[in-house]
Automatic annotation (TrEMBL):
Protein name: 5-amino-6-(5-phosphoribosylamino)uracil reductase
Keyword tags: NADP, Oxidoreductase
UniProt xrefs under SUPFAM superfamilies: Dihydrofolate reductase-like
Bacterial bifunctional deaminase-reductase C-terminal domain residues: 123-221
InterPro entries, per the entry: DHFR-like_dom_sf, RibDG_C, Riboflavin_Biosynth_HTPR
Pathway: Cofactor biosynthesis; riboflavin biosynthesis
GO MF terms, alphabetically ordered: 5-amino-6-(5-phosphoribosylamino)uracil reductase activity
UniProt KW Oxidoreductase keyword: yes
Keyword presence, NADP: yes
Amino acid sequence: MHMSLDGKIVGDYLATSVGMASQREFHALAYGPQRHYRSHKGWLSGRITTEDNFTHYRTPDLNKAAAAVPDGDYIAVPDAPMNYFSIDPAGQLGWQKNSIDYFDTNAHVVEVLSGKASNAYKDLLRRLGISYLIAGDDTLDLAQAVEKIGANFGGEELMLGGGGGLNWSFIRAGLCDEVSIVLTPAADGTKGAQTLFEADDRYTTPLPTAFDLQDIQKLDDGSLWLRYTVTGPIN
Ligand SMILES: NC(=O)c1ccc[n+]([C@@H]2O[C@H](COP(=O)([O-])OP(=O)(O)OC[C@H]3O[C@@H](n4cnc5c(N)ncnc54)[C@H](OP(=O)(O)O)[C@@H]3O)[C@@H](O)[C@H]2O)c1
């Protein structure tokens, strides 16, 4: 994740020259050709992150009369160099193509659905060549999602790419080993803006949690790269 000096992950600071330089450093570490994290095949993002950045709250173009799709998961592109694992429990995202571009990285879209996603939505994904994995029945089973991503797409690690809601769910579920932050030397002071971790009462509760600093580096643009392991809940 990249975040502002005041812990915010969204805001006007992002589009400034300082914000963009820091985001380029972040991208290089996570996804660039000389990246630090080399053992992953993509990153996970929550539904709101995808709406805000890629599908822009479009309604999916469903064929309600579509024939029943086969049960189970669907792998359209098994060997893409990079994948965008899109958490979308009910199948709501209005995709129009099967890849996204983020800086100079192209990533195949893999939807991570629960049993609530409709036949018509899965039919749309198949028509678009978008892979999907089903994890959980009424709610998404995060541990099963991680297992299925590893089993179907490989990779020794998996990047957790936000937003704050999804990040906190992974911390609370004990599914996050490392927190890696590019701290941008900027802030905009927006009250209430999304932070790195946000409990969402539909999914999680707040809980004091400790992290153990492993490394700190100053990057070329003046950002700090901080790496922590997750210690866990504290009294
Ligand atoms: N600076 C950065 O590095 C960075 C990175 C990523 C995102 N962002 C920003 O973060 C903002 C979005 O963050 P957000 O916290 O509002 O949303 P989010 O984490 O992107 O997505 C949350 C959604 O994911 C789905 N979800 C399913 N199971 C979940 C679970 N167990 N826990 C949490 N979510 C679950 C839910 O969708 P349903 O509502 O369909 O159930 C939930 O509403 C965006 O504006 C984005 O641009 C910044």
